[in-house]
């Protein structure tokens, strides 16, 4: 029987066995990984921000064919067809809609009306307060140790701030620096109702990332990541590499030219017209408070990530990673990983009470 402390408001809300979430990493959180996580008792989240509508529909059916456990879908609230995607989630009975940036209140209401829970990711106390007032069901708060787009405040300081800000009404899931049962217990002690992990799930046998890329990750230390603005104009934690150093040293015109080429490639692959891309850029500028230069560079991210995470070209792509990469040294299955975390957490909890 699971320790009672590991049955939280989050597990009750979502209907999962364990308070563990696999984040919606672009190109990494495929149906295979999301289903494996959910089947093991956590909440798997499918990465849909880089998918077309039809690809998303196929991916949801794929997850359904692998498990009947609850799972989530991560989307961008500023995608031109987000309303259609929401209708798809409702029709398919997806349990959780995850967003990197919070959707507008009308979209939250539509998701709630359709029985879908809303859990945006936030990186600042003020953002948590805003989305809590909008009526979201839970928030995922990521500290600066986390991979991908990240802030400057470490989880140990940001998490208690957010827990205090949203109070008892909104379950908080903590991300950034988690990889084991000790971290899960620590997060619960801070007032979180669960943990979310990206890099740790990327480095599992169920992850679709090419083996040689996983081995590169395993060779890194906690100091082998860097936060750069030269991928897409906003702070992005990635593995150090020659390509990242080149991006850091490149002139502004050269960076913009590369970003424009990548945006064209991504638009073609995603089936987006120039009108769609302009509309999406305007929405990103408004909702994410980006400058025009940041909007221009935003096309870099999906293509540079795909080069490494899908094609295995670490020389041509970037690799999002949390600092936790330096304490990971194996590639367990999602089931083995979750079982190990829960067993360790129960051991720690038992030890705390003597």
Write up what this structure looks like:
With 354 residues, this protein is α/β, with parallel strands linked by helices. The chain folds into 2 domains: 4-208 and 329-352, Alpha-Beta Barrel (TIM Barrel); 221-320, no CATH class. The protein is built from 16 helices and 11 strands. It has helices spanning 9-14, 31-39, 53-66, 82-92, 105-113, 125-134, 155-166, 181-190, 199-202, 211-218, 242-249, 252-270, 274-287, 292-297, 300-309, 334-352, and strands spanning 20-22, 43-47, 71-75, 96-99, 117-122, 139-142, 148-149, 172-175, 194-197, 225-228, 236-239. The strands form 2 sheets. It has an 8-stranded parallel β-barrel, surrounded by 7 helices. Strand 5, helix 6 and strand 6 form a beta-alpha-beta unit. The chain is globular, with a radius of gyration of 19 Å. The chain starts with 8 loop residues before the first helix and ends with a helix. The mean pLDDT is 89.
Instruction: Name the CATH architecture of the largest domain.
Output: Alpha-Beta Barrel
Annotation field: number of helices: 16
Any low-confidence stretches, pLDDT <50, length ≥5?
Answer: none
The biggest beta sheet is recorded as: 8 strands, parallel, barrel
What is the molecular shape? globular
What is the rounded distance between the termini?
19 Å
CATH fold assignment of the largest domain? TIM Barrel
